[in-house]
Amino acid sequence: MLTQTSFQGKLNKTEDLFIPFIEAGDPTPEVTIELALKLQEAGADILELGIPYSDPLADGPTIQRAAKRALDNGMSLQQAIELIPEMREKGLEIPVVVFTYYNPVLRIGEEKFFKLLEEHGAEGVLIPDLPHEESESVRDLALKHDIEYISLVAPNSEERIQKIASEARGFLYCVSTLGVTGGENQLSSEVTDFIRKVKEHSPVPVAVGFGISTNEDVRMIRDHADGVIIGSKIIRLVEAEVENLKDDSKRQEALDRFYENVRELVE
Amino acid sequence: MEQVYPDQKGRYGDFGGKYVPETLMAPLQELEEALDEAMADREFITEYHRVLEKYAGRPTALTYADKVTEMLGGARIYLKREDLLHTGAHKLNNAIGQALLAKRMGKQKIIAETGAGQHGVASATVAAKFGLECKVFMGEEDIRRQEPNVFRMKMLGAEVIPVSSGRGTLKDATNEAIRYWVANCEDTFYLIGSVVGPHPYPRMVRDFQRIIGDESKRQFLEGEPTLPDYIYACVGGGSNAIGMFHPFLEDDVELVGVEAAGKGIDTSEHAATLTKGDRGVIHGSLTFLLQDEHGQITEPYSISAGLDYPGIGPEHAYLFDSKQVRYEAVTDEEAMNALKLLTETEGIIPAVESAHALAQAFKEAKDMSPDKTILINLSGRGDKDLATIMNHFKGEE
């Protein structure tokens, strides 16, 4: 590929990336837009926008709760994608990667899904329950619609690492530990070996996620990888302010506290 | 040329596959290799059959239901008595197969999901017998309605882990078991109870359940000159039905799978996945499932905890799509009436799950001529359902 993708055009750097995750519609669509802008202000380089799903198999209790809050508000795949242009209008410039389970994509139709992403200015997509072997048609469509299909590798991927990493686009998502999101696992020294192996084969930045919840975790990952993905911890910061974020008179202060907490986490 | 399903990618036509997080790809590969090796090993197969015979009580009987046949006045009705299997349902066939495989793979810990509790009990039983550590994930709603089975599992030494997400039924228990497996796949074997989940589970469970159909075929021809005209089995995930149907797929027999219509397929309270559902992915497999217009999985309902599942095994989706099996749905009410009828005429209290197959078979048998024969898979006994049954018939005395 000689031409630059929209994703690459919007990404300002290729190392020391901060990639936060928020769930669309948690606690309301309006707040999601505000949170995205705050995260950009706090230094986010890529936004992972989660689509709430009834049965999020790869997620721990924190993101399950976020999904439930969003679904209770009636959030859907299409509505979530429609938030992106609103974020752009208010000044969001960083690339947006839509994180969704496969079933809502199947339901709406793969073609229509990618058309929606392209029309609404998303730059990437990540489908956690679609492994390499099942993703061929989706990867072809992504290419056609100028959307980066983000792949994942896990510590037990072993001989699969080379194949997945060498075909990676956008950034490569390294799952730090065996488990679901939001785990309490200590990041082991084995992670650094794993990251090194992945970096050998990856033509794109390598970012690490799952269970990263403290400033120490962030610093440790930064020394070895090109980026850090933070999901459950960000959701817990949202969760702590849920009622205030829903309240017009308290929202601004809650957003400011959210900003400070995120800064502390990644500084 | 006859096509063998599933193919290399775990596909039954369009259905099946492996829709799982990357973390599970390695353990699924490890499982598939160990399974293929075991199934090709004569010693493993011999041991599986030995345990089925000496421990579980196979072969189970084939019973001619003369009283109910006479009462309905139509086709001659036979029952395959999986209710007589140790622990009270067909689930043990599969639990034994997978536990032997777990041991062979050197895994000392097993986990299982359960709805009605029958698979949980079967798993706890093989764990006790083969010295494995066992955790059973069970929805809170199911724990409430299947209390005796919860107690049995605990007695057998298993840890029962309550699952509160969703509506607290089989779907949610399966989610939680998969999440646990992702984190513990290195030393833990996930013993799935039905023909669902990512490849190679649907194939493995089918192959450990086809003993039901293999035996039935042999036994039927001991009493009748030809194979049955019709075979009925209830379908939740679909393991007893696949086990019964599979050996008959190439024969001139009409196969009928019976889903749970709950309070009616025109209400929102049913578990009639093929009758009312659409294509989608659930628990790692492309199949049919109950979902809303946005692709969110919806909550099923059935009086029977074992059929209360929004998905169905991918091979059933294929057999439905290719019209090789006919699928019908019967309501709570119809199932409970069939349960009562069998109890009163034959002295057999069936499981509420199996009563769904009985209801559809009885409905059709009436209008058939007496030279027709039908075979019903009586997948389990009703002891675990006494509270549900008492509650349902309350006020009728």
Structural account:
The complex is a heterodimer of chains A (267) and B (397). Chain A is of the alpha/beta class. Chain A has a single domain, classed as Alpha-Beta Barrel (TIM Barrel). Chain A has 13 helices and 9 strands. Chain A has a 9-stranded parallel β-sheet. Chain A is globular. Chain B has a 6-stranded mixed β-sheet with strand order 3-4-14-9-10-13, with helices on both faces. In chain B, strands 7-6-5-8 form a 4-stranded parallel β-sheet, sandwiched between helices. A two-stranded antiparallel sheet of chain B has the order 1-2. The model of chain B has no long low-confidence stretch (mean pLDDT 96). Chain B has 16 helices and 14 strands. Chain B folds into 2 domains: 18-52 and 91-206, Rossmann fold, CATH 3.40.50.1100; 57-88 and 210-393, Rossmann fold (3-Layer(aba) Sandwich). Chain B is α/β, with parallel strands linked by helices.
Distance between the termini of chain A: 35 Å
How many separate domains of chain A? Answer: 1
User: Rg of chain A from C-alpha positions?
Assistant: 17 Å
Most residues in contact, chain pair and counts: A-B, 41 and 37 residues
CATH topology of chain A: TIM Barrel
Specify the helix fraction band of chain A.
Answer: 40-55%
The first-level CATH class name of the largest domain in chain B: Alpha Beta
